[in-house]
Inverse folding.
């Protein structure tokens, strides 16, 4: 695959409409090709899922083709996959050649019994939301989905610090991206053979380019987002140790970088 | 696939619909029974998280009366097998889920429930 040039963008329309056009519609179009390239789990996520206790149920918010739904420790844990792309869900439905539970929905909605889950993961999803307030809301939805007692959350987003092996070229913008991150589009090139599998796409052109929107996260931006989300829900940020009584909070267990991505692992607690 | 294990987690999230918005009521459903691997250990640890009344009511509405009305304290093999069937082997392929409160209709197509709302319906 050739290097992918990334172009900076400014969002000047309603963010929900922008996401519909520049994220959801594109995933529905490229679903088949995209899914064929997404099969290898990231190590941090595989490790997180391998340590989930027996009998825990989880939400994979932004499940895509459902590749993480299969990491269920042979049925000792169990996950529901939520995604906005119906065509990706058709792959997720049979991830790992097993019947999986999937739901068509938006990660900004709360279509669950509150605190119904033991854990939630959000992998390469929140970076597709077009404003800071929408990204905060997405984190709040994850915190609301899990148990207030011991619920775990893992969030994984695209980082401004790129891996040496990364194939993407990030433009040097005018603004101070090191603090606020950067809004960009990343081209997805759909070749004719892939288009042919989708009867709705034009057949006459040799290839089609689809520019997916991403917010590239700056260093520290993800944990700041978590703090803001927690504060908005009245949750204390930090460890349970030394807290006054009758408090609910969120502890950041891990805050790191892996292969061009930032991640945080969170634990909810209450006393 | 929508199975009762997922249905037991879903709730209506339409604007201003905050009470009596669970469980959603199946309507005009097309079912498929598919055998699944029996995993009693998982069911046992999952049991405390189930909304029992909602599960029994919904199973009955779909024609399965194998579960007792009151959640038993003793968990025997028969109960685990019945729970396994109700939670993991009944697939709802087509139909809809209706909110008991605001009557919002969440369609199910090809085994995938659509929980999206129009912009003006979102809280
Ligand atoms: Zn409702």
């Amino acid at each position: 695959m050739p290097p992918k040039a990334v172009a900076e963008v400014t969002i000047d329309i309603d963010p929900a409409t922008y996401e519909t056009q520049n994220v959801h519609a594109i995933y529905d179009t490229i679903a088949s090709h995209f899914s064929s390239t997404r099969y290898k789990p990231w190590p941090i996520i595989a490790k997180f899922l391998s340590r989930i206790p027996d009998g825990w149920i989880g939400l994979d918010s932004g499940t895509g083709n459902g590749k993480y739904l299969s990491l269920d420790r042979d049925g000792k844990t169990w996950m529901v996959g939520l995604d906005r792309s119906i065509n990706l869900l058709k792959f997720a439905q049979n991830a790992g050649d097993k019947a999986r539970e999937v739901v068509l929905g938006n990660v900004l909605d709360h279509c669950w019994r509150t605190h119904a889950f033991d854990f939630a993961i959000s992998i390469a999803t929140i970076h597709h939301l077009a404003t800071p307030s929408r990204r905060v809301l997405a984190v709040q939805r994850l915190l609301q989905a899990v148990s207030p007692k011991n619920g775990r959350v893992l969030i994984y987003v695209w980082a401004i610090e790129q891996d040496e092996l990364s194939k993407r070229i990030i433009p040097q913008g005018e603004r101070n991206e090191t603090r606020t991150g950067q809004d960009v589009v990343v081209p997805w090139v759909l070749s004719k053979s892939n288009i042919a599998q989708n009867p709705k796409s034009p057949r006459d052109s040799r290839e089609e380019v689809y520019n997916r929107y991403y917010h590239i996260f700056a260093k520290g931006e993800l944990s700041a987002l978590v703090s803001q989300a927690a504060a908005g829900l009245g949750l204390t940020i930090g460890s349970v140790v030394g807290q006054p009584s009758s408090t609910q909070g969120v502890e950041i267990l891990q805050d790191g970088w892996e292969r061009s991505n930032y991640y945080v692992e969170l634990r909810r607690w209450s006393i | 696939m929508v199975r009762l294990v997922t249905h037991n987690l879903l709730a209506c999230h339409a604007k201003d619909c905050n009470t009596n918005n669970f469980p959603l009521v199946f309507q005009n459903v097309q079912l498929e029974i598919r055998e699944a691997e029996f995993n009693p250990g998982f069911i046992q640890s999952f049991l405390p998280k189930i909304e029992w009344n909602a599960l029994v009511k919904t199973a009955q509405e779909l024609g399965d009366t194998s579960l007792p009305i009151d959640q038993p304290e003793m968990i025997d093999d028969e109960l685990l097998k019945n729970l396994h069937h109700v939670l993991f082997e009944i697939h709802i392929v087509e139909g809809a889920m209706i909110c008991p409160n605001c009557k919002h209709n969440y369609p199910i197509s090809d085994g995938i429930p659509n929980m999206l709302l129009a912009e003006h319906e979102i809280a």
